[in-house]
Prior knowledge:
With 456 residues, the chain is α/β, with parallel strands linked by helices. Helices cover 43% and strands 17% of the residues.
Amino acid sequence: MKIKDILTQQQNFFNSNKTKNINFRIEQLSKIKKALKENEGLLYKAIYEDFGKSEFETYVTELSLLYHEINSCIKNIRKWSKRKKVSTGIINFPAKSYIIPEPLGTTLVIGAWNYPYQLSLVPSITSLAAGNTVILKPSELPSKTSEVMAKIINDNFPSEYFCVVEGGIKETTELLEHRFDKIFFTGSIPVGKIIYQAAAKHLTPVTLELGGKSPTFVLADTDIKMTAKRIVWAKFLNAGQTCIAPDYVLVDKSIEERFLEALKNEIKEYHKNTENIEENYLRIINVNNFDRLNKLIDNDRLYFGGKTNRNERFISPTILQNISFEDEVMKGEIFGPILPVISFTKLDDAIKMVKERPKPLSCYIYSKNRKNIDKLLNEISFGGGAVNDSLMHLSNSNLPFGGVGLSGIGSYHGKAGFDTFSHFKSILDKPFWIEPNIKYAPYSTWKLKIIKWLFK
Ligand code: NAD
């Protein structure tokens, strides 16, 4: 079916008001969960074929988040969609005032490839929970996962309500020619700009979940072993192909050697049960990205790792040392299993370097010193992050997830997601039994006096 026809169908379906019914929404969310559960085998197979992701990691980093989001929406949807009373004030006495959350209409969700299920389906689920219709365009790069999502969704839902349109630049460009009521995009900064421009033509509101270089501060008083353990897990999960992965580390010079040693030990520990890491470690998504990453491994700065195999698109967990902000690896988002470590002697200098660059999506701070933690939280602007941990803020759906500045516009997860896909209609509601005449002509000095007194 043509994109134009699907969209017309969705507009008609939305206008039928069926999606306004909360029971209908709950039924659909339960149906998504059932369809995903019934097809888990296919979901695991597809993602393994695309980039060698194991069942364990797929469940932990993708499916668990989907089920959590569905459960949270089902549990809270009545509360979130309720009218909210607000005070009215004397000016409008005897009226009442309230806010009605209402769905926006037809929405377009464009996904990125690195967590293909989560990044495509979490926003779709939230949009449906808020009462919208959805056209989902997953990333075409992991072709099997795109295919399996299209199959599961299109077999279980009518296209007038929820539909997957597969494709790359051509199909996305065509989708963007049409007017949606909301576009939710996850991906790179350059493509984010294309989406924003296309949306502007129709004045369509957008949420842009973009990327960037997320710094990780390691201060002198930290627990070095635990810090290394948490950073290694967060950085090398998904072979570093995580938008909020610690992109680089800024470590206090006084603990640099001990910290590097601890990172190395943790990587060894992490993979000690992996007989052949080359066979079992997650793949880089494609050869283009492999070549881009391979060029970033400067052998003169190599501290650990650096094993590569182009045919297998394999890069082992790699640490680079003696790095400065001028190095190639610090020019763009790494998005792979390479961790540059930069040392600093004055915290203020490190903060300055970070602040001179675009606002990051995430920032992580490892320290036991509350004063320094608060200083960093206060002085650096970033989307979200964690103190003495990395990545895990994403797993708490009470924390709105999104960027700031170049790392994105808007946020989602939990209630924030519901709000992102809603309009808040403000209503003043008045009875007929009385009408104070003060605003009406004829104007008089005593009326003006009263008005001035009311607004003094
Ligand atoms: P990408 O921008 O290349 O692609 C994202 C989507 O845009 C895909 O569906 C793709 O088909 C489409 N697209 C690509 N080029 C297009 C064009 N010229 N016109 C229209 N559509 C186009 O991003 P990616 O490679 O899939 O993902 C990696 C990037 O996404 C990284 O920068 C990463 O940090 C970021 N990311 C951000 C988040 C987040 O939640 N903030 C999550 C994951 C990834």
